[in-house]
Design goal:
By secondary structure, the protein is of the alpha+beta class. The protein folds into 3 domains: 116 residues, no CATH class; 238 residues, Jelly Rolls, CATH 2.60.120.650; 112 residues, no CATH class. The protein has a 7-stranded mixed beta sheet. Strands 7-14-9-12 form a 4-stranded antiparallel beta sheet, with no helix packed on it. Strands 3-4 form a two-stranded antiparallel ribbon. Helix 3 packs antiparallel against helix 4, helix 5 packs parallel to helix 6 and helix 17 crosses helix 18. 40% of the residues are buried. It binds 2-oxoglutaric acid. The site of 2-oxoglutaric acid has 11 residues, from strand 7, strand 8, strand 14 and strand 15.
Length: 484
């Protein structure tokens, strides 16, 4: 771990110096503010004022040059239009002045300044990834599965698996270097941290970034912007049946190119619209940690309606603060490393994170297999569907649109499920999900959810889905019973 550039140390170290912290004399009357409040105030002022503050004292210099302030400012004001210059402060100043910044001078040293808030991001960004975080591997692996085997062993029980021997055959594995991707984008911007950014600028950022949680390229428009990439891989046979295809261009976003440097990745979330996904690692390696739908990972706080999730901002922070708790808990995660040429099946409803252990390139598709249809409909009919559904227009109507399109293009899928549903007592629940036309009466939805939670014995199907948007609690969709 390297020292903070200004020599800022964690607050605990102050005890060793008998409580003497230059913060108090250095900040003057601003010392009355907590570190959090001071940074929030500084986040409101202009760059010019920040530069002035940085000249006032060593202590204020360290706050006013804090990288996170300048990163936020650069992203908000320049959006994706910047070339990274080694630090966010230089990046911002160069982008705004539209000229080369002067050579960097050595950072000002502020011995005797103690602040966890200033110190922690640097500590997280420079500490080595602990081998203990990476060692445990409980992800099953399989090769050469038939569709029937895959469904029976993994998709129906809704459990993750690493599929080998498929992705390593793709031309993408040989081709998808940064240079190739930049050419494929041909001047069209990629989506990075929700901003449009030139691929070459993002590649330069990846080379120079020291961020604790680096910006991530996550582009659902890559196929349109860089069509040649679509010819470099094939949707594996196991995942070809995707019922959302019946919606054509009106389907929810479903495929993403993912590029990022070491330490970048995805914090804990569940995949959109109760879909499952496959994530193929084309270059690099990713450590995954997954919890089944009913286990909320330590350090993760979903809102009651499931529309928001509070979690540590950086992946390394989650590992440093919560990985040990995850191991000590009753429900230990499924976890492991997925390497270039391998693919992870991410089952619907599972909480998951992924951290890139080296610079990585991946492609992921979310899909709706027949097994997942009841869950997806339950999700899209939840009371908060308008906010829960994502990646398409007219979100509140997704379930109705899907049912209507299935009636038209795949009537056998609906007929099969309805038939199975009618043959069992709980058919009423299933029928509820298929009700066409959508009268918008939320009572219908509540009845559906209450019905599956009615206290009748639930057959362990593995088709567990978190779809109860009303309480945020998961319920088991009794689907196998309906199929018997
Ligand atoms: O590759 C990654 O960062 C993981 C992506 C992911 O979790 C997702 O697409 O849901």
């Amino acid at each position: 771990m390297s020292q903070h550039p200004n020599g800022v140390q964690p607050l605990g170290n102050c005890l060793l110096r008998g409580g003497c912290n230059i913060r108090h004399p250095g900040l003057g009357s601003l010392a009355a503010l907590s570190d959090e409040l001071l940074l929030s105030v500084l986040a409101q002022v202009s760059a010019r004022s920040l530069v002035a503050c940085a000249g006032a004292s060593k202590a204020l210099h360290c706050f006013a040059t804090h990288e996170e302030l300048w990163r936020a400012m650069a992203l908000q004001e320049c959006e994706g239009r910047f070339r990274f210059r080694g630090t966010w402060r230089r990046t911002y100043l160069a982008a705004r002045a539209a000229r080369e910044p002067p050579p960097a001078s050595p950072p000002l040293r502020a011995p005797g300044l103690y602040s966890d808030l200033l110190h922690k991001p640097h500590w997280l960004a420079t500490r080595a990834l602990d081998p203990a975080w990476l060692a445990r591997d409980t992800l099953p692996r399989a090769a050469g599965l038939s569709i029937a085997e895959f469904r029976a062993r993994f998709e129906e029980p809704n459990v993750p698996v690493v599929i080998t021997g498929v992705v390593n055959q793709w031309p993408a594995c040989k081709r998808w270097t940064h240079k190739y991707l930049r050419k494929a984008y041909g001047g069209q911007p990629a989506v990075v941290a929700n901003y449009d950014m030139a691929f070459g600028d993002y590649a330069a950022y990846c080379r120079g970034s020291c961020d604790d949680m680096p910006l991530y390229l996550f582009d659902s428009g890559f196929a349109e912007k860089a069509p040649r990439l679509v010819g470099d891989y094939l949707v594996p046979e196991l995942f070809k049946e995707d019922l959302f295809q019946v919606l054509g261009d009106a389907r929810p976003a479903h495929r993403w190119l993912i590029v990022g440097p070491q330490r970048s990745g995805s914090t804990f979330h569940k995949d959109p619209n109760a879909t499952s996904a496959w994530n193929a690692v084309v270059r690099g390696a990713k450590k995954w940690v997954l919890f089944p739908p009913h286990v909320i990972p330590p350090g993760v706080h979903p809102s009651a309606d499931g529309t928001e999730v509070a979690t540590p901002l950086s992946l390394v922070e989650w590992f440093a603060d919560f990985y040990a708790d995850a191991q000590a808990g009753e429900a230990r995660p499924v976890e492991g490393i997925v390497r270039a040429g391998e693919l992870l099946f991410v089952p619907r409803g599972w909480w998951h994170l992924a951290i890139n252990l080296e610079e990585s390139v991946a492609v992921t598709h979310n899909y709706l297999g027949p097994v997942g249809l009841p869950a997806a409909l339950a999700f899209a009919r939840a009371p908060a569907a308008e906010r829960l559904v994502s990646g398409c227009a007219d979100r509140g109507a997704l379930a109705d649109r899907l049912v209507a399109a299935l009636r038209q293009h795949r009537p056998e899928v609906l007929a099969g499920l309805q038939e199975q549903g009618q043959s069992k007592r709980k058919g009423a629940c299933l029928a509820e999900l298929f009700r066409g036309g959508g009268n918008g009466n939320p009572k219908h939805r509540r009845v559906s959810a209450a019905c599956v939670r009615s206290g009748e014995p639930v057959i362990e199907t593995g088709a567990a889905v978190e779809a109860d948007a009303e309480t945020g609690a998961g319920f088991r969709f009794n689907f196998t019973a309906l199929c018997n």
